[in-house]
Each structure stands twice: as structure tokens, then as C-alpha cells.
UniProtKB/TrEMBL annotation:
Organism, as annotated: Clostridium butyricum
Protein's recorded name: PD-(D/E)XK nuclease superfamily protein
């Protein structure tokens, strides 16, 4: 699912995914990078929902394809 928020003439793109492993996570990063490229933006947000009992909450800054992605695992 994607959310695009326009505020003060700036777009914020948020990609939301369910955690299904590292390979799926990497596809989500690539998908967000593509959306950022289409919208001529350098920064986006990836929110990952992890329903595993042993999940770890974390936030990380990822640089992929020249784009800055704030990834949050909840």
C-alpha cells in the first residue's frame, strides 16, 4: 500500500509492507525507490509491519539508488 501526502507543496511518499522476509523487504525498497524517481524526490518512508512474536522494533536510514529511505519496523 502506498500513501502520498502533499503538504506545503511537498510530497511525502510512504510505502507500507508486511514483513515477509529479507527478499521481500528488498523488493519494497526497490519499489519505493522507483516511486521516488517517478516523483523526482530524494527521500521516502518505508513502514514495515511485523506480526512475528519475537519481532524487534527498529528504525534505520537506508541509502538505495541515491535515495534516502527511512525504514521503520513495527
Amino acid at each position: 500500500m502506498d500513501i502520498i501526502i502533499t503538504y506545503n507543496n511537498y510530497k511525502y511518499i510512504i510505502e507500507m509492507k508486511i514483513w515477509r522476509g529479507q527478499k521481500y523487504h528488498e523488493k519494497g525498497i526497490k519499489q519505493l525507490c522507483d516511486y521516488l524517481e517517478i516523483n523526482d524526490l530524494d527521500k521516502g518512508y518505508l513502514v514495515i509491519f511485523n506480526f512475528n512474536k519475537n519481532k524487534e522494533y527498529k528504525e534505520e536510514l537506508i541509502n538505495a539508488d541515491g535515495k534516502d529511505i527511512v525504514a521503520i519496523l513495527v
